[in-house]
Amino acid sequence: MNIEFLLYAKYDENRLTPSRDRLFKAIISSLNEVNINPLIFLSEYSIIQSENNDKSLVYSFHPSSDPIYIEYRDKTIYITISTGTFGAGYHRFVIGVLDRIARRLDVVFKEDENYKDPSGYFYNRDFDKLQEFFENSLVEYSKALFSHYDNGFSSFMISMPYDYPMIEKDYFALSCLGYWGKSWFKEFISARERKSFLNEFFIWHNEEMDKYFWLKSLNSLVWLFFPFREMIDDREKELYKKIIYSFNEAFKKDSKLQYCWDILISIALYLNDENLAVFIKEKKLPNDVHIGFRTEMARYNIAGGFSIILPMRMNMYRNNKALVEFKDISIYIAMQVFTFENKEIDDIREYVLHQIDIAEEDKGNKVDIKANNKDIEIIAYEAILEDNDYMITVASVTNKLAMLSWFTFNGLENKEICIEAIKSISIL
Description:
Number of helices: 12
Radius of gyration: 25 Å
Structural class: alpha+beta
Strand content: 15-25%
Oligomer: single chain
Low-confidence stretches: none
Strand order of the largest sheet: 13-14-15-19-18-17-16
Mean pLDDT: 91
Shape: globular
Helix content: 25-40%
């Protein structure tokens, strides 16, 4: 369910036009002024450069929402906005922010003729009609889900991050606020009064950032990003701070909401904030909420058509098309894919095993691990390293394809996760 539109503002020929960098700094300054309190603590931006040296400003008001993209070329500012499942309140907020930017830069934003605001809000500024538009859009979207379901599809992802893997679990639909069953959509479609449904489904459906906005912001950050373990880098540290900040904002408005108390206590301890952990424990109610599909297993696509099932909490890095790395506190996996033409499996196996031996390191003893996929042949070796570290070196071979994998883990308690992941290696 994606609502996307494009705005542009052209500088007059008679005016002095700013450089791209200077313009972007002015826009960022305007955005930060608007968000001084309270969204500034959730917002972030970056500047990306394309192959032809064009630059775009990417600004995210909220970690769970799609960012806006700002380009500047030919004396024209182009802004692409996506509001998706974030709701009418967010849609109104973004346009209000752009109004402020327009006044500061002394430009007039106009709708692109081919990509106008489908809600009509940019033109009419009628918030009641905007909420009605989101309601009707969700009704039509719900009907479309059932239509696809009747045609044999399931496990729908609603405005989820594009690079999210497929969760190894049966479900009807999934958004940044969790799982949604068929019954919820049926009840929503048939309801005469849908306000409660809309407030439940959208993170920001009303005008103000009320307690439910902050509670759902907290929940969405946990659902989408929280890895359920200690942080491993500054990026995760910032995420943990944003989760706690959302909790603080919601708690100030209503301390009796259904918070995920145990998760919040863990995050406070990860941030070395003992006082906050004690505070949360003292305020904890018996209505603790379980949140997080990142505790479950998911299938990740690797280069060359290989796939593997791993816990959702693991971070994935793609260094290039052939090398993929997965990192967790106690587990590190690196994978290198090889492709061949007109090669038999025996020849491929010998080539890949030779690649292992080139390093002249002790690969350990051969272990018997069989893939669940009959088309994959696995050759594995296990070695004991220092400081309770272990490594399983794996060659996964199939016709015209092979993958070398190194599963390094600390503590024998993590061995089973690695073995099950090795068994799950498959070809899509």
